[in-house]
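To close the chapter, one final illustration. This time we ask the reader to focus less on the individual chains and more on the assembly as a whole: which components sit near each other, and how the overall shape emerges from the parts.
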Amino acid sequence: MNLLTLFLSALLINNIILAKFLGMCPFMGVSSKVEPAIGMGAAVIFVVTGASILSWLLFYLVLKPLGLEYMELICFILLIAAFVQFVEMFVKKMSPSLYKQLGIYLPLITTNCAVLYAAQENISQGYNFIEMIINSVGIAAGFMLMLVIFATIRERLQGNDIPKAFRGNPIAFIIAAIMAIAFSALAGLV
Amino acid sequence: MRIIIAALLIIGLFALNVFLYRANNATPVPEGCENTEMPQCSGCGIMDCAIKKKLEEKEREEKHEIS
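The assembled structure is written out below.
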């Protein structure tokens, strides 16, 4: 598959949030303001890419040669959790300024199913190393894109006169639904 | 044999998790990013430095108003 097509497919058409409905918890929880949304998105890009690389290597260098493909799920979960711990520790020590920006989001990403989805998707689709990286970056960038758009809309709505019954989560879900409908129009692009 | 390798792999990954978790907890957080203790909320261990900064500013303003 053409790499650009792969990237655009992961970014927009098969968007992790609007098409796959994964990673909804941070999507709803970290989208009240644009600034934390950007921080969360950047952290997700980093973690998804790193975790996908490690998972891909683990599968093709350890699990597949040993005939242990059935252990993919449990191994990926443990690997992702370990990787996030390592990243948090590394950022704490090496870059306190980066930790001040991203630190709160790293533990949240451990439970983000989008990370596990990206790792498993790369294996199930049989991507090579380059395709795996492009797909992972596309998935994470799609997550960040939708998160920032959603946060922008929610921030704009804060100044509006929304009926009491719709304030907070109800209007947020309506916005997400309208975004999903809008982006479903891209389905025939590739 | 394969089951033994599988079990060792799981145990190894689990041990790695435990080691990294303990190492992460032992690593000191940068200054200003410690958990904030909020008396009104026992479950709020806020590590967000931006929130902590805003809380401190608010406390300073309140003290200034009182004085």
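The mean pLDDT of chain A is 87. Chain A has one domain: 3-188. With these observations in hand, you are ready for the problems at the end of the chapter.
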